[in-house]
Amino acid sequence: MSDREFGGNDDLSLPKATVQKIITEILATNDSESSITFARDARDLLIDCCVEFITLISSEANDIAEREAKKTIATEHIDKALKELGFPEYVREVLASAGEMKESLKVSFATYHGEKQIYFVREGGLWALT
Known about the structure:
The chain has helices at 16-27, 40-67, 75-84, 91-104; strands at 106-112, 115-122, 125-129. By secondary structure, it is α+β, with helices and mostly antiparallel strands. It has a domain at 1-86: Histone, subunit A, CATH 1.10.20.
C-alpha cells in the first residue's frame, strides 16, 4: 500500500534521533579523522525510504492476512510478504530479530485490585505499566 492508498498522509515518519543513532552506529569507525558523516537531507531521504518500505511490507502482510481470513498480522505474514515482494534475503534476519525481541520483552499479565497491569521482564528486572 502506498501513500496514495493512505490518503497521502505526510505525518508518517520515524524518529529522526533514532535513525541518526542507527546511522552513526553503522558508520562509526575507530579513526575519527576518516569517519563519514551523513548529511541531514540524506538522513531525511533515508527516513522517507524506510517509511515507504515499512508501508509496502505491512500492506502486503495485511493482504496476506486477509486472504487467510486472519484479523491479526503475524510474523508468518511478514515472512510471506518479504518473499512475495522479492526480499527473501531479509527473512532470516527479520525472524531472528523478532525472536530476540520476543525473548527480551516477555509480557505477563497480573490482576491488582481488580485492574489489569502489564509487567515487562527486561534484563532481569520487572517493570510494571499501569
